[in-house]
Structures are given as C-alpha cells and as structure tokens.
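Mods, move this if it's the wrong board.
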Amino acid sequence: MGRRRKGLKIDGVLLLDKPVGLSSNSALQKARRLLNAQKAGHTGTLDPLASGLLPLCFGEATKFSADLLNADKEYLTTVKFGEKTSTGDAEGEVIFSAEPKFTFKEFCAVLERFRGEIVQIPPMYSALKKDGVPLYKFARKGEEIEREPRKVVISSLDIVDFQPPEVTLLVRCSKGTYIRTLGEDIGEALGCGAHLKTLRRTAIADLHIEEAVDLDLFERMTEEQRIAVLLPPDRLLQSLAPVKLDEEATKKFLNGMKVRTDERSIEEAKVRVYGISAEKTEFLLGVGRLTSDGVLAPDRLISFVDNDR
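Not the wrong board. Structure tokens:
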C-alpha cells in the first residue's frame, strides 16, 4: 500500500507579492506550509533582490505553470545612471563611474533604440547554466563565460519618473529579457554606465500586481481566508481560447480520446477545454490541441481522482 502524501489536496493559484530579499523557492515553501498543501510549484523565478508578482501553483494548477513561462512580463524599475556595478544591480561593487550629463530629450532619443526587437547578452549574474552550473557561480569566482546573444522584444518602454541620476521606467517585454542588462545597455549608450537600483514585477500576461497578496498579510490570515484568496487553475490559461464540450465528448476527452468539435483553428492551437457534468455543471478539463478540421486532442488533463466526477 502506497504512502499517503502529507498535507491537503488544494488546487488553485496564489498571486503573491514577493518581498525583496526572499528567493522564489523560499516564498513558495512558506506559502505551501501556510496552506498545508500537498503539491506546489511556481511559474518561473523572480530574483531575491526583486519584488512583485509571483504566481504560485498548488495541486492541479501546477500542470499549467509552464504556460506562463512564455508570457510577456511587465516590470517597474529604477535605474541609477553614472555608476556601473559588477552585478548590474545595487548589490555589486562600482566598477565604472561617469557624470550623467544627458537631457530629457537625449534620454528619450536613446530609449527609442531599445524598443521593439533588440539583442541582449545575458549577464554573468544569472541562473543560465553552462555545463549544468549556473553562471552566477562562475561570476562569484571571478570567471567570465562566453554567452550567446539572444533576441528579445521590448513591446513598451515608458518613463515614469525622470530625476537624474535616477530614472524610473515601466518595461513590457518578452520572455528571456534581462532588465539588468537593459539598464546597463541604456547606460552604455549614454556613455555614463548604469545599474538597477530597484526592480518590481508588475504583470505576467493578464495577471497584475493589484490582484496579488502580500506575504505578511497572507501569514496573518485564517485558513479559510487563505483558501478564499486562491484563484482557480484556469486563471493561468486565460490567454488560450476556450473550447466547451458536451457531456458525451467530456467523458471521451477525460479518457484520453480525441473528440470532434464545431470549433476550428487556422493551424494547430493550444486551447483550454471545459466539460459539463451530468448535473450540467461546467468545469475545467485541462488543455488540448485543436486542429484546423475541428479535432481536439488531450494534452494535459485535470485529475479527478479525489472528486465525484
């Protein structure tokens, strides 16, 4: 007889406002203990020195955590110009300094170069791996590893506050964008160097920081209140088109069978799939692949082992 997993079977998403100084994994484990949840995961790390939106997944929601990895993200960052540091942020040692003499007009002109598709070289102080070892471990030893340039997209780059030597920017960008590198590259273009003073993630896809719960507040909540602030697993899937199945197709789909629908897609597309129970209650089945001729194949399914369905 198999050993029962400790904790409660909790399915849902917690939008956490992670504080500065805490790693993403530490935040996850703390929230997991507070919920006494069996299974937990996050949707991609946020640097300990950064604060802001960290979606945490529990139970069946962990099956869809990867769907946010490719999503656009939004950051609010304050960049200090005139000082370049060894880490690209305020924790590092100053390795170059120059008086920032740019005007607002000059700054706007330089900023224009960083909108749209740009090329970045990932920083040494990052979690990217070389032969299985994170680059930051090489960096801490003073070693420099060659990194391949990568294309990223800066869909919006707006000035929130202009008070040189500090400028606060709101950045909307594609996956894989390094905001530290963006700040350093802007400083390089201005000829004075720069590093990030603060970094806060404010959105991932259609998830926003305004919906997030402060960790201290979450800790002070009762068990019922903590459960109440969890969002349903399909909150991670809102960027996918919905497909609804009738009762017969629901049973087939849950058994791993392909079903034919009235829906169509120009090319094979990932969709979120809803079924209907005998009591006519609609519920999430999981994620499927929809072809141009209306055939829907299961991809990742919700498990209803502990449910009545």
